[in-house]
Amino acid sequence: MPEVLQRLHSGAACVFYHQETRMYHVGIAFAGDSFQVAYYDRAGCVLSGLYNVHEHPGTLVRPIMGLSYLDDSYLGKDTSIVSRDGREFTTLGGVEIVECLSADSDILSKGTICWRCCMPGSSAQIVIKSKWRVFDPYRPKEVKLLQKATGIDGVAQLVCEDEVQHANGLPQDTLWLRDALQVPGRIAILRDHPRMELRRMAMRPFGRGLEDFVSKDELLGGFHDAIKDRGILHCDISDNNVMLRKPDEYFRSRGLLVDLDCAVFVDERTQMGPKGCSKGTHPFIACNVLNPARAEARAPWHDLESFLYVLMYICATCSGPCDTLREDFDIDDSPMGPWLAGDYEHKTRVMFGYDDAAFRAFLDELFDPYFNDLKDLVVDLRRVITRTPPFRAGHDEVCGVFERRMEARVAARGEGAAANSRKEGSPSEGSPSAGPSTGNSSAGATRGKPSAGSSAGSSSARPSASSKRKYASRDDHDGDGDSAGGQSPSRGCKDSSRPMPSIKDSRTSLSSSDDSREAALDSSPVRSSSSLRSSFSLLSSSSSDPFPSLDEFKRMPLTSQSGSAAVSSDGERDYGREEDKSRMFVQLITQPSKRRRVE
Q1: CA separation, residue 480 to residues 6, 92, 117, 303, 374 (Å)
Q2: How far is CA 381 from CA 224, 288, 320, 359, in A?
Q3: For burial by CB atoms within 10 Å, which of 118, 171, 217, 519 has the most?
Q4: Contact 454, 473 (CB under 8 A)
Q5: Percentage, residues of the chain above pLDDT 90
Q6: Hey, how many other C-beta atoms are within 10 angstroms of the C-beta on 421?
Q7: 3-class secondary structure for 303-361?
């Protein structure tokens, strides 16, 4: 039976991953003549006793018949997500779900899911974050931080937040079944199981992953803007929590910080956060925070150190713009691999023990050749960020390092363009037609000549829709949701059948030189001007604020009324025998016998 249960656990994890609206899952494990009923939710697993099929046939028939009879609301489906004509809507403001951006497949977890959504009646796009949280009688910590961060540029802004309710109107939590099982004569199964409730937040603006940068200038600009001092210790700087976006009239920052679940507002006097807090994404946590012997209080330089690790991670895993990942590369087998395995001693030795020459050799082995010109920047950042007291790094100083390097890149491109223009205008080049071409002629030759027949200003220099993988729809879009290639992104973030495209496939007219390719991207339009407009600026200019108030947002009607419950003539849902169905579901896995938990 243990092996069968393990397979059942794996199947439950797949169900949670592929079915975004799954609240819980019920399965039956068979081993020979024995069987067990298992109930899974984000707080863990509850198992029934072990029964013999021949001795307890009624015990087996009852859950099978019950699962066949009950409607979706008691089979683990989320009734706050309704479907109509292949489109899905959420009751949180009635927004349409366009696609899933990320989903957590672990059973015992927060079950975080992020959706890209469209506001009803407009083209404005928001992100809805669904997460199971340990019950808080007041308000979740992240909501409080987002409310305090209102108006801070470069930080995700809260639009609306609410709890998800069951079909019977009660909050969607993990205690309803466990409470029903607490009767005399049974082992208490609530021990060590926290009460978790499902809540959803609508946030703006909409950003793209760091891997989706279109040029190194955009990547460095995003880091520069995200690093600015905002009086917040994020405490979970990672590749998933730093995003890129195109500035508009509402948001000037090119970098965007999301997920403030671990964040704290620093003490204005000491600029320090809590001590002994080691939360975060392990590979990007600062060395002294990971070291149990030091256990330093969180401080701004720890977040700055995490930013450096994120930049190194991007330079190691990507081989070009537009989400072009390195081929035949495994980060676990790279020089950075021990960091992902939790070896903070190795990380400390590299970051604090190596001199500049040794650290440069480490980067030579780690970085993709496309990022060779960023190694000097990383060396400078390490020199500033890893300084010991009393000369600790500050936000302004780190931003200054980025600014100097970005200015140097612009100056180098200008010199290269001037030299190339003189070279093309020289009669020694051959025919008189060898002079500068019309239009955007020098763009593709800024730092290297393009291949024959290419023109950096031509449409062939633009990345096609096929060159984007999982972040294709995280860019700004037109009102109809079309991407740059004119194709509406398919919903779901788990399409493993799509091949990993190479950047070369969509830029066949560019030179194989990395510098030439980037120069062409920097100077040529990557997408049509309409597709790059911020979705929030597409609203009527007569409105000073494109977003509704909290009360207006929650009063917005649903576009669809389809669901598991019937709709009466007066518009109210009729759930009928909800109480009877609740009792029936509890009976599915309720027997006066021994019970045990699986963590």
Answers
A1: 44, 21, 12, 38, 38
A2: 12, 17, 22, 12
A3: 519
A4: no
A5: 17
A6: 16
A7: HHHHHHHHHHHHHHHEEECCCEECCCCCHHHCCCHHHHCCCHHHHHHHHHHCCHHHHHH
Q: Report the distance separating Cα 484 and Cα 17, nearest Å.
A: 28
Q: Look up residue 115 and give its two tokens.
A: 């959706």
- Contact, 402 vs 377, CB < 8 A? yes
Question: CA quadruple 72, 73, 74, 78: dihedral positive or negative?
Answer: positive
Are 589 and 46 within 8 A, CB to CB?
yes
pLDDT tens figures, 416-463: 777 877 777 655 444 444 443 333 333 333 333 333 333 333 333 333
Judged against a pLDDT cut of 60, whether residue 177 lies above it is answered with: yes
Q: How far apart are the C-alpha atoms of 46 and 181, rounded to whole Å?
A: 10
Cβ–Cβ under 8 Å, residues 354 and 298: no
pTM for this entry: 0.65
Q: What domains can be seen in the chain, in order of their start residue?
A: 2-77+576-598 (no CATH), 210-423+517-533 (1.10.510.10)
What are the distances in angstroms from CA 206 to CA 86, 117, 225, 569?
Answer: 23, 9, 16, 38
Q: Quote the strand ranges of 55-195, DSSP E.
A: 81-84, 87-90, 96-103, 113-118, 125-134, 157-163
